[in-house]
Amino acid sequence: MSSCDLCVVRNRAICAALDSKELEALNAIGRTRNITSGESLIWEGEDSVLVANVIEGVLKLSTNTEDGREQIVGVVYPSDFIGRPFGGKSGHGVTALTDAKVCVFSRRDFDAFSREHPKLEHKLLERTLGELDRTRRWMLLLGRKSASEKMASFLIEMSERLTGSGCKVDADKPNQRHLVLPFSRQQIADVLGLTIETVSRQFTRLKNEGVIDLPSRRDVTILDYQALVAEAG
Amino acid sequence: MSSCDLCVVRNRAICAALDSKELEALNAIGRTRNITSGESLIWEGEDSVLVANVIEGVLKLSTNTEDGREQIVGVVYPSDFIGRPFGGKSGHGVTALTDAKVCVFSRRDFDAFSREHPKLEHKLLERTLGELDRTRRWMLLLGRKSASEKMASFLIEMSERLTGSGCKVDADKPNQRHLVLPFSRQQIADVLGLTIETVSRQFTRLKNEGVIDLPSRRDVTILDYQALVAEAG
DNA sequence: TGGTACCCATGATCTATGTCCAGTTGTGAC
DNA sequence: GTCACAACTGGACATAGATCATGGGTACCA
C-alpha cells in the first residue's frame, strides 16, 4: 500500500488524476516534508529545483523590491500546488505561515513524470488557469480599491478560503462566521498593498461599526457578512 | 494545404505543438476573425464560449468595479492565447487596442480537441505558467511601487514586449530605443493603477529630465534606458 | 477653412494613506 | 511573578497622488 492512500488531499490535489498504480510511481519520486511556521521552501530568484503539493498548513508566495518592500502574490492551502514546473527561475519565495506538511518532488523528476501522464498535466493546467483567474481578480483590488474596500474584500476571501479548516458558519446565524487568520497584521498589509497601521485602523473601524468582533489578535468574528460584501465594492 | 501553413504565428503559438495533420484538424474547428480597434471579443462575467490565438494586433484584458473604475489585468500580443478553456466564466473582458486578427474556436470544440492532444495541452500549460509569473510580478508593481517606479517599469516592459513589432533598437545607440505605444494615456493609467493626470505628469517629468523624448502622443523615444532601469526599483 | 470632439497637459487644491513615534497589550522564558 | 520582546494600536503630521478645472493641440469631417 502506498502512503498516498492515507493522504488527506488524495482526492483534491492534482494526484486525483492518477489511478493507484500511477500514484505509486509518483509516490516513488516524492517525499513528505514538515515545515515550521516562518520557514521557507523556495527563495525568490533561485532556479526552480523543486515542486510540491500542500498537505497541511498555509504558505505565502511573496516578492520583494530591492529596498525591502514586500508584496504577497499568493496564498496556498492544503491540496494546492507549489513551484514552477518546466524550467525557469522562481519569481517569488514560498514561506510557511503556519506549521505545514508538503509532498515535495525534484522539479526534473516531476517534469518528466508529468509529461508522461497527460491526465496529471491536465489537472495542473486547470489548477493553473484557476490560479491565474484569482490572481487577476486580485490585481483589481491592488490597483483600484481603497483601504476599506481592500479590507472587506480580504475578510470575504478569507472566510471563503478557510471554510472547513479555519472558518465555521453557524446555521443559526448565516450572516455571521468565525475565522482564525493565518496572518499577522504586517502580512495582511503585504497582501493588500497597505501599511500595518492602515490595516490596524481598518480593523478597529470595522469593530466600532459592529461589522466584526476581534476576540484575539488572530481571531475575527464576522457579525455582518452582508455589510462586508457591500463595502467590498 | 491548410491555411495555417501561411500563418505568421504558426511556430510561436500553441499550434507549434502540432504536426501538419493535427493542425489541419484544429484548423477545421477554427476560423480567423478581424477585429477593429476598440471592439470587444469577450465580455467580463459572461460564460466562456470562445477561445482564440492572436495573429496580429494588441488586445487588453480588463476588469471593472461596479462603479466604473477599470484595471487592465493583461495585454496580449501576436501568438498569445486568449480565453478560459475548461468551463467557468470569463473574469475579464478582452478588447482590441489596435486593429487585430485572431483565430477563434468554440470553447467546447477546443476543450475536446485539446484533451485529445496532450502536446497542445502541454504548450498551453507552459504558456499559462508564464502568464501567471508575469501577472504576479505586476502585483508587486501595483501594490508596492510609486508612480515614478510604475512609469519606468511600464516603459521597460513595453520596450521588451514590443521588440520586433513596435520597438527598434539602434545598434549605434544601445541605450536608446523607439516605441509606438498601443495605449492611450487613460489606458496606461488603467494598467498602472494611476490616474491619467499622474501618467501625464510622469511623462513630462521624464521628458524634462532627458530620459525620454515624446515626438508624438503615441511615440516614445527612450534616450537613457539605464536611467529607466535604475528608476524602476 | 472652419467646426467640433476628443485627447492631453498643467495648475490649484484636497484627502487618503503613509510616516513617525509613543504607548499598550500579549507572550514566552526563567 | 516579572522581565523582555514582539505585535499591535492610536495620535500627530506629512505628502504622493487624486480630484477639479481650464486651455491647447490635433485629427476628422463638412
From TrEMBL, chains A, B:
It comes from the Bacteria. It holds the Pfam family cNMP_binding. The keyword Protein transport does not apply. Keywords: DNA-binding, Transcription, Transcription regulation. PROSITE patterns: CNMP_BINDING_3, HTH_CRP_2. Residues 145-226 form the HTH crp-type domain. Residues 14-83 form the Cyclic nucleotide-binding domain. InterPro entries: cNMP-bd_dom, cNMP-bd_dom_sf, Env_Response_Regulators, HTH_CRP, RmlC-like_jellyroll, WH-like_DNA-bd_sf, WH_DNA-bd_sf. PANTHER family: CRP FAMILY TRANSCRIPTIONAL REGULATORY PROTEIN (PTHR24567), FUMARATE AND NITRATE REDUCTION REGULATORY PROTEIN (PTHR24567:SF75). This is Transcriptional activator protein FnrL. It comes from Novosphingobium indicum. The gene is fnrL.
